[in-house]
């Protein structure tokens, strides 16, 4: 049995029962913060506009407002977070330019994962221009909204080839059902650094844990793929989730990828639909409390630094 599996048996997070407020259902801080830099590898900013952020539907009313660096700064200060990676929230060139401008004016935004049309005929030039922009560290496409087979389109592959040539990271945003497609896709680009967002978005509400576990392990067999420990609270029942109910998903990812290939992420402000910023970070810190100080430092900061900022 692996060290991670032993830790899984030794300790599981406990929480208040279903229906309790999110603030009562999150764990503690997971012990003292280990030495080293702490990086939130996944957060968003936006100036809300209904036309531009159509994915924020009626069930997400609390997100229908601006979320800006001045809103996040006190939260990261309170949690001892040293920096963040800002990730695109709409597929628009202007948003990427705006995020890069924010990063130039706020030192805690260490990098930006932006968007560019990776299927455009002039994709090479588009990616090269962005790659030369300070703090642009990666790109992402919202593949979860695309039809089956999207990751195998020749035009999209040409885009990924441009990403690889420019030395940028590509963030994979998919649902769990798309994991087999992602395995084949990532296998075709062995020199490209890939980061799986939100553990592949397992269907926590609907179950299917074992099938997701098997597929995640298949992706983790590829050494050039990393994984963000993020996004779980909003894949679960927003009002009824518990730390114990989410723990198997975190343990699976930790076991599959190991400390050197996972990184903490909040998915703020989307996470606030189900839990406060500090509570989301506490889920991960509690899950890794029995890891060594070096392993905790790796998960809480060094992996993100190694992948995005080195």
Helix percentage range: 40-55%
Oligomer: single chain
Order of helices and strands: HHEHEHEHEHEHEHEHHEHH
Estimated radius of gyration: 18 Å
- How are the strands ordered across the major sheet? 1-2-3-4-5-6-7-8
Question: What is the name of the CATH superfamily?
Answer: Metal-dependent hydrolases
CATH architecture: Alpha-Beta Barrel
Major sheet:
8 strands, parallel
DSSP, total strands:
8
Can you describe what's shown?
- By secondary structure, the chain is an alpha/beta fold.
- The chain is built from twelve helices and eight strands.
- The protein has an eight-stranded parallel sheet with strand order 1-2-3-4-5-6-7-8, with helices on both faces.
- α1 (3-10) packs antiparallel against α10, α7 (179-187) runs parallel beside α8 (209-220) and α8 packs parallel to α10 (243-257).
- It starts with a helix and ends with a helix.
Explain briefly what this protein structure is.
The chain has 310 residues and is an alpha/beta fold. Helix content is 40%, strand content 12%.
Layout of SSEs?
Blueprint lengths: L2 H8 L11 H4 L13 E5 L25 H11 L3 E5 L5 H13 L3 E6 L8 H9 L4 E6 L12 H12 L3 E4 L6 H9 L6 E3 L12 H12 L4 E5 L2 H4 L7 H15 L4 E3 L12 H11 L5 H17 L1
Parallel strand pairs: 1-2, 2-3, 3-4, 4-5, 5-6, 6-7, 7-8
Describe the structure using short key phrases:
single chain; 310 residues; alpha/beta; TIM Barrel; 8-stranded parallel sheet; 12 helices; globular
